[in-house]
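Quick question, first post here. What does this chain look like in 3D?
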Amino acid sequence: MSRGGPHDGGGPAGPDTGPVTTGRERGAARGWQDSVREYVRDLRGGVRDGERGPLLVIAGLIVIWIVFQGLDDKFLSPRNLSNLSVDIVGTGLVAVGIVFVLLIREIDLSVGSVSGLAGAAFAVLNVNQGVPEWLAVIVAVAAGTAVGAFHGFFHAWLGVPAFVVTLAGLLIWNGLTLYLLGASGTINIDEEGLVASLTSRHFGNDLAAYAVAALGTGGYFLAARRRRSRHRATGMPYRPGGEIWLRTGLLAVVAFAGAHTLNRFQGLPFALLVFLVVLVVSDYVLRRTRYGRRVYALGGGVEAARRAGIGVERVRVAMFMVSGTLAAFGGLFVASGLTSASPTTARAAGSGMLLINAIAAAVIGGTSLFGGRGSPWSVLLGVVVIQSIASGMGLLGVQDAVQFMITGGVLLAAVAADALSRRAQARRGRP
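> Answer (accepted):
Ran it through. Tokens below.
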């Protein structure tokens, strides 16, 4: 059973994405110590065999936080961590769309330009033309969906490589964005409006953050138990109950610690809640639906997918539509944080940095550039790593040029690890 496939666990912060032992029947009555030992042994085995997973990413994130906290004690303050939880949303949404495309062994280089186009379309319609915000938002997101369908058509039905189609799209949509914004290149949006409130709104009641933490932890536990019962009834390998309790406990510690930290500042950010909902829905579609299984099957091999009766062209078009839609959605959150539509700044929607950060977030989290492996939850860890580096260097006053080089180095290391993992699996005769 491959990691990141439709039958993997999945869940907040990746506690159920570890390797599942398939060489022997599991689930016999064992104590807590046996469960802990086996869990640790599985994790160590996955690392030794070259499999990338949340363990290494979490370890790297801890090192990053320790280093930046040592250099500036404000890094782990509730204010900075709350701001970090909001800053990850725009890039994270774009990265989730990238995951859908990467799973079918393709790439979308246009997501940065599409996000900028959505922000520009909203600003022009709302600010310049007086269109109501809610309608301008719908048009902007629909534009992203249409762009994705355009890319998918050229790739799936005309056979143009996705790299070429989306590279052309990067130029086309970036040019259209600049044209819409006009000579000024920037349109400020209403700081009290609907879009601006996407990143400025917080749920001040402490119960909101704790409720989300409890709901996420309980949902993971119930899903894991249900999956265990289903696998046990069909004779498939399944996790012991003690291991499920252990994973749930670790998730609960992280979730409630995060909720407590957010409540020490302004409470649960609305943007973070939206991001978590998108992750849950995306993960459910990919792991728990027939359509999601088709996506993973296509990532495993085009010819095998065709022989299985999968409409390869339709799936490809749909994945690019998802990517375009989430890129547009993410662009609105980026515009919300800046309270303007302007692709000329380094961190804005439409900039090349947003594209690089989105791809890096997906790959660092564990989504393979070679297709067939990964999940939306992988984005969460990846984007936290990327944004933590940016936040820490921002606090230290490091110039953008250095940040770009460091982010590029991190991306290169993640891709190299992915390639080495594939090579190690090929030597062992695994797909």
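The chain has a mean pLDDT of 84.
The beta strands are 187-188, 202-203, 268-269, 340-341.
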